[in-house]
């Protein structure tokens, strides 16, 4: 697999959003702008020095492409979180941080639909990027359901109020405050979601909260293929290391060779797929710009949908049984089990 391109970005500003959340704004040099074009809801992978160690951490972009002039990530302190605490304590104007180019598939294909955006805590970060893009570049309507521990934990409060004033007919915001409303449950969320009309859903937040939201959406029979969930797990290796150790494959029954048909951006391409190569490697070797990030099966950035054939995923720490039943796979972990496999990034 080709090593990722590493860039050094300068911190232009650090914004204190709440007592335990900071936004880090990066300035782009003219030659960097093309490489850092991005879609709403994508993330950056940062190289963080911590007590002599080297860490790689993914942080969602809260800025919106073609609306905000600079890149902005928002980081909330996590108990014993080495990356988040280092950034909150040490990121300062003028500092330079090594960053990989934007990645991720938690992004709408169109901005003209009715969206339900569900965020918990710092999960508002990619949701905010999508929200601003829909309102600023699209024609769609947005309902934001935003859960927090207490009133003081609400990130982007002032910005949300400003957007509400600017788009009163297209944006509505429903806050859930645990200190007064109690812990959210799937039954109570179902009651809230039933009151809204929407075409597509994006969910990001703590695991238990996202599970509640997903159960609530299932209870109202909302189609799974129109629910997008962003989950981040800690990376097991560091993509910034200059030499990537060759990865072996677990012993699984795979055919000697396969053919993969790929649908992406309305075009179809066909490649030969050796049985001992991960699908992502096949796609990138053949010159395709396939989305990816961790290459370890923990971030879902490389997710696509299997529409024909069968694959084996060597490691999967992010897709749930329901996702797999719906056909979603991780290209960075997929090995072929049938002579022909067809995947789609468009469905």
From TrEMBL:
**Which Gene3D superfamilies does this entry report, sorted A to Z?**
3.10.20.30, Nucleotide-binding domain of ferredoxin-NADP reductase (FNR) module, Translation factors
Going by the entry's taxonomy, the superkingdom of the source organism is recorded as Bacteria
Transport in keyword set:
no
Where would I find the FAD-binding FR-type domain in this sequence?
4-109
Pfam families hit by this protein: FAD_binding_6, Fer2, NAD_binding_1
Q: Which InterPro entries match?
A: 2Fe-2S_ferredoxin-like_sf, 2Fe-2S_ferredoxin-type, 2Fe2S_fd_BS, Beta-grasp_dom_sf, Cbr1-like_FAD-bd_dom, FAD-bd_FR_type, Flavoprot_Pyr_Nucl_cyt_Rdtase, FNR_nucleotide-bd
Its keywords, alphabetically, are: 2Fe-2S, FAD, Flavoprotein, Iron, Iron-sulfur, Metal-binding, Oxidoreductase
Positions of the 2Fe-2S ferredoxin-type domain: 258-347
Co-factor requirement: FAD
Q: Name one GO molecular function term.
A: oxidoreductase activity
Name of the protein in question = 3-ketosteroid-9-alpha-hydroxylase
Q: Which organism is it from?
A: Rhodococcus oxybenzonivorans
Q: What is the lineage of its organism?
A: Bacteria, Bacillati, Actinomycetota, Actinomycetes, Mycobacteriales
């Amino acid at each position: 697999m080709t090593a990722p391109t590493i860039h050094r970005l300068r911190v232009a500003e650090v914004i204190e959003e709440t007592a335990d959340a900071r936004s880090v704004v990066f300035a782009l040099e003219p030659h960097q702008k093309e490489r850092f074009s991005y879609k709403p809801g994508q993330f950056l992978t940062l190289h963080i020095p911590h007590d002599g160690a080297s860490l790689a951490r993914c942080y969602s972009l809260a800025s919106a492409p073609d609306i905000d002039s600079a890149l902005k990530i928002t980081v909330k302190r996590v108990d014993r979180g080495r990356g988040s605490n280092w950034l909150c304590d040490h990121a300062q104007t003028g500092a330079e941080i090594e960053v990989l180019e934007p990645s991720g598939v938690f992004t709408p294909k169109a901005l003209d639909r009715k969206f339900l955006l569900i965020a918990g805590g710092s999960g508002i970060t990619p949701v905010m990027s999508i929200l601003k893009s829909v309102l600023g570049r699209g024609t769609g309507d947005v309902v934001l359901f935003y859960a927090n521990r207490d009133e003081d934990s609400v990130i982007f409060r002032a910005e949300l109020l400003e957007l509400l004033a600017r788009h009163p007919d297209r944006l509505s915001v429903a806050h859930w405050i645990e200190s007064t409303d109690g812990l959210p449950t799937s039954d109570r969320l179902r009651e809230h979601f039933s009151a809204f009309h929407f075409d597509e859903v994006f969910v990001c937040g703590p695991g238990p909260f996202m599970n509640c939201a997903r159960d609530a959406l299932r209870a109202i029979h909302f189609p799974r293929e129109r629910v997008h969930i962003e989950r981040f797990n800690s990376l097991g290796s560091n993509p910034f290391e200059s030499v990537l150790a060759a990865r072996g494959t677990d012993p699984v029954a795979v055919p000697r060779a396969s053919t993969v048909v790929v649908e992406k951006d309305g075009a179809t391409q066909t490649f030969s797929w050796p049985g001992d190569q991960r699908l992502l490697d096949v796609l990138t070797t053949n010159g395709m710009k396939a989305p990816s990030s961790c290459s370890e099966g923990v971030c879902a950035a490389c997710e696509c949908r299997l529409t024909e054939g069968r694959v084996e995923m060597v490691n999967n720490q992010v897709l749930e049984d329901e996702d797999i039943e719906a056909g979603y796979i991780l290209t960075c972990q997929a090995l072929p089990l049938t002579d022909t496999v067809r995947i789609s990034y468009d469905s």
